[in-house]
Specification:
This protein is α/β, with parallel strands linked by helices and 275 residues long. The protein is built from nine helices and seven strands; from the N terminus they run βαβαββαααααβαβαβ. It has helices spanning 19-28, 45-52, 86-112, 118-123, 133-142, 149-157, 172-181, 198-210, 225-237, and strands spanning 4-5, 33-36, 58-69, 72-79, 185-188, 215-220, 241-245. It has a seven-stranded mixed beta sheet. Helix 8 (198-210) links the parallel strand 5 (185-188) and strand 6. Helix 1 packs across helix 2 (45-52) and helix 5 crosses helix 6. The longest helix has 27 residues, at 86-112. The chain is globular, with a radius of gyration of 18 Å.
């Protein structure tokens, strides 16, 4: 049986493995089809394609776009996108510019709380194209301000904490349009993680589909079996294709491994059916 993992990250965004090492690990883990879906950037695609060439691994070009929807931040995966598409790259560039602005604000707020050098310190862990909260978290852990990354987020980087800055990302319409314009398939990433009410989630899916979205990530890393059943039903209710992905970031997170996923329920229509 073909092993699909359609959600993963490299050092281009907030993963800990280079695109080349990510591909190598996926092969070691028995993955047959891997999507590289870095946050708001596709700079790792060429290196990943080169690493996958001549191997049994089929690489899917992807991206994970940050979106502000109402008062929520959600993520939309773009699978099988043309990563050279000009409109897509222009949109992603705007998000990355905002990320830089947010990073400066995070550092300023941490400075006011007595933690200096956060911007420079976080930059040491980041790629040239993305400086995110996880990089600040690594800096704060290494400087002894928290026990681990989860502790950092609880104490510093969530709402009402010293380093919190709200996100102002792309709109849902923009994200779906960029993906569709690049010939890709738009998928709502890890829907259960947003902790929305059932009514709100259905409203999100309704708007997403009306805009041209086609998929729902039914199986994701760290997901309860009951959540899979619920999401499978939603995919069928809205006639959406079903995707699956580990959302792999690092070998250190042993509970989220490449390819280590439950099978999609037999009731759903896999997104790769017509690939």
């Amino acid at each position: 049986m073909t092993c699909y993992d359609l959600h993963s990250h490299s050092t281009v965004s907030d993963g800990s493995l280079s695109p080349e090492h990510l591909v190598a690990r996926a092969i070691d883990q028995g993955v047959d089809v891997l999507a590289l879906t870095d946050h708001d950037g596709t700079e790792g695609i060429i290196a990943a394609q080169a690493a996958a060439q001549g191997t049994k691994l089929s690489l899917v070009t992807g991206v994970e776009i940050s979106v502000t929807w109402g008062s929520s931040t959600i993520h939309i995966l773009g699978l099988k996108v043309d990563h050279k598409n000009a409109s897509l790259q222009k949109g992603l560039e705007k998000i990355r510019d905002y990320r830089k602005e947010r990073a400066v604000k995070i550092a300023e707020r941490l400075e006011k709380s007595g933690i200096s050098g956060a911007y420079e310190g976080a930059s040491q862990y980041a790629s040239p194209v993305m400086l995110g909260r996880v990089h600040f978290a690594k800096f704060l852990v290494d400087k002894g301000h928290a026990k681990n990354i989860n502790d950092v987020f609880k104490r510093y980087l969530v709402r009402n904490k010293p380093g919190y800055v709200s996100g102002e990302w792309a709109t849902l319409a923009q994200a779906v349009n960029w993906i569709n314009g690049a010939g890709g398939q738009a998928v709502i990433a890890h829907p259960a993680r947003y902790k929305m009410t059932a009514t709100k989630l259905r409203r999100l899916i309704t708007e997403f589909k009306e805009l041209g979205g086609v998929g729902l990530e039914v199986v994701s890393g760290r997901q309860h079996p009951e959540e899979i059943k619920t999401l499978a039903k939603l995919a069928n209710d809205f006639n959406l294709l079903a995707s699956c992905g580990s959302d792999f970031h690092s070998p250190d997170n042993t509970w989220v491994e490449l390819g280590r996923l439950p099978e999609l329920p037999s009731s759903v229509n896999p997104i790769w059916k017509k690939w």
